[in-house]
Design a protein that fits this description.
It is a single chain. This protein is mostly beta strands. It contains two helices and 21 strands. It has helices at about 30-45, 75-80, and strands at about 1-5, 20, 50-55, 60, 70-75, 85-90, 95-100, 100-105, 110-115, 120-125, 130-135, 135-140, 140-150, 155, 160-165, 170, 180, 190-195, 200, 205-210, 215. The strands form five sheets. Strands 5, 7, 8, 10, 11, 13, 15, 19 and 20 form a nine-stranded mixed sheet that branches. The protein has a four-stranded mixed sheet with strand order 3-4-6-9.
């Protein structure tokens, strides 16, 4: 972990080195933060081509595109659901746009059919507060505006957030789906794709997945 500012890890362990006072970074956090916010907002404008059904007992998302299946769901519905089932063709990327400024996922089961969790990403494009508890998230999370409280559970995927607190664990299943990209001005760039994967921490953004399994924050 490269730290340019302050870092505190009470009652936690890091499976590697922590370097303080870093001045040379492999990327510009301000630029990355700006781009991720633009991307998250742009993804939220994509037309949904998948369908959703169900309620508190469980939500089912069904898509048929072999490349990109887009779903728009309410954060309030996701927070109440006890189970989430995702049906999409093998190899398809699944983009789930979730509205709401204060969202949560707790005590919810996941069932992915056809595609796999490394192709699934949840885009909390409005959330400034995001809570995960007692859940094993199958897929990646894009929440560039959110303060994430990950009190318990795990994520099998990449996480991008404004800040992160809690003792949730991260497993090494980086997002490898393919999504359309926008320029920094928010204009789509035809033919350009983005693979969200990596392991970066700092500058107010948590981006990625620790390279060691079961790393606790």
């Amino acid at each position: 972990i490269n730290v340019g500012g302050k870092y505190s890890n009470p009652n936690t362990s890091v499976g590697g080195e922590v370097t303080y006072g870093t001045t040379i970074m492999p990327f510009d956090f301000k630029a990355v933060a700006s781009d991720l916010k633009v991307m998250s907002n742009y993804f939220s404008t994509l037309d949904a081509n998948g369908t959703s059904s169900g309620g508190e007992n469980g939500l089912t998302l069904s898509g048929s595109s072999k490349s990109l299946d887009v779903f728009n769901i309410r954060g309030s519905d996701l927070s109440k659901a006890s189970n989430l089932t995702i049906n999409a063709p093998s190899g398809a990327t699944v983009l789930i746009n979730v509205d709401g400024t204060s969202d949560k996922i707790s005590n919810m089961g996941f069932n992915i059919k056809g595609t796999d969790k490394q192709k699934v990403i949840f885009n909390f494009y409005q959330a400034t507060s995001l809570t995960f508890s007692g859940v094993g998230i199958q897929g990646s999370v894009l929440a560039p505006l959110a303060a994430v409280n990950f009190s318990s559970g795990s994520i099998d995927g990449t996480m991008i957030a404004g800040s992160l607190s809690g003792r949730g664990s991260s497993n090494d299943f980086l997002f490898n789906g393919i999504l359309p990209v926008t320029s920094s001005q928010g204009v789509p760039e035809p033919g350009v794709t983005m693979l969200l994967a990596g392991s970066l921490i700092g500058g107010g953004f948590f981006f990625g997945n620790m390279r060691r399994k079961q790393v606790r924050y």
